[in-house]
């Protein structure tokens, strides 16, 4: 059992399994079955997954290590999990045979690289001259040196390596070839050098050359039964290098059939919300953490083609929405939905990207925060954080980082619609934008400020006019324009910038003798008014206001001597004239 060769013992995955009766465990072990089918299968044995921070990359890497590594003993861990139901046909020792999941369970030589840990170890090595080894000068040298050092602790491997010529302290590929063994390589955060050493092109080239030797050269490639790389960024176009273009790659722009493994699915979150210890509804989880929407080919596609059906479903998609898994787990453990994303370390990167303002990015970000979507094309994205020259590339990067979602069904081959996926990301982006010096100068924010002031001053005519301008804007769905829900959206988005930090908003809130359409209640400050809103389509604002009074929606805020100001707001829309009407009264 080692650190780099055949790791074993406890890790993030085994700890989750051990605590599944008292914690949250979502069984994604069927992903292992997908990798079993790819073992020694040409280029299919090379897999790369790019997911945002806090989306379970490390847990998945640990899961694969726990399954394959000779240094682990995990039969009891996987018993009863999804992968235990695996059966298939593989060529083993030159003969086809029926196999179960136990065929490879803890029977493979695994090389495990956690690039974050290796980077930390290298920095410690670099700062202590007593540790210095001749010719080990950078993290690429260090990575090869420490891995080779551990491989040589295996007596059988060391004997074979010792007989091979020209294997030095950094000759990792040559050493692997000399062992005459097959390895499973699992590399977590493979793209760390392109994020943390972004300005060191010489180091990046050295790193890519090392990977080219492992995965492009025939002798290096023959050493691996499987290679699994995980990171944040896609990998194909780094600095015009194509060392890894033989990897089968899945990312937030196109996860394809692996979409369910990019987060928690609706069904999985539904089961979490049924747990006795979970006080949060799935509707709340959906609002806060879902919204990463992917398209996969319709499940009937292959069946139709196999049957020779001329009316096949080519070009048809089914959509899969996934939730941020880390945030869902934190919401359950802390008994509330909140923003658990803002602590991630890429916020500074987002600030830099927004402030580039190619083609009006700032306006587009504000529009998306308010509920809109913006088209972009990812064909020119170079898959790094440096070579960005236009808006399309920045939106592609923001999707990969998890700060934007993108429409699942493509508009064309490489065109997508970007949007803010959920409340958690919306709050994060709002906090980022509010800190920028240009924030108060943006016209869309100025309009929202005017709406809030118009409501507070009971200027009904101006309120109706501003809501109308939002209703007629590009980010209100044309298909939903004549629906009452569109008015709710207009007011929520219109008040977002000036009310979000000070108000809690409630839709269909039980109040009096019925349910108020929309209520804004101050979180702390008592000098802000409570706002109770009723919406009417093809009726009058007077009718809406009358309903608030007759149903006594404000009654709950007049108990126990509560003297806060309450504003009653009736808002209507005439679908024939497309005119808005508003009445505001102070209770």
Structural write-up:
Strand 16, helix 23 (541-550) and strand 17 (566-574) form a beta-alpha-beta unit. This protein is of the alpha/beta class and 587 residues long. It has 4 domains: 12-251, Rossmann fold, CATH 3.40.50; 261-334, no CATH class; 347-440, Orthogonal Bundle (Arc Repressor Mutant, subunit A), CATH 1.10.10; 442-586, 3-Layer(aba) Sandwich (Trna Endonuclease, Chain: A, domain 1). Helix content is 38%, strand content 19%. A 5-stranded parallel β-sheet has the order 4-5-6-1-7. A 5-stranded mixed β-sheet has the order 14-15-16-17-18, with helices on both faces. Strands 8-10-9 form a 3-stranded antiparallel β-sheet. The N and C termini lie far apart (72 Å). The radius of gyration is 28 Å and the shape is elongated. The relative contact order is 0.08. The chain is built from 23 helices and 18 strands. The model is unreliable at 299-314 and 477-481 (pLDDT under 50).
Structural class: alpha/beta
The number of domains is 4
The rough form would be described as elongated
Report mean pLDDT, rounded to a whole number.
87
Q: Work out the helicity level.
A: 25-40%
Total DSSP helices? 23
Per the CATH scheme, the topology name of the largest domain is Rossmann fold
From the N-terminal CA to the C-terminal CA, the straight-line distance is 72 Å
Under the CATH scheme, which class of the largest domain? Alpha Beta
Gyration radius over CA: 28 Å
CATH architecture of the largest domain, by name, is: 3-Layer(aba) Sandwich
- Strand proportion, as a percent range, falls in 15-25%
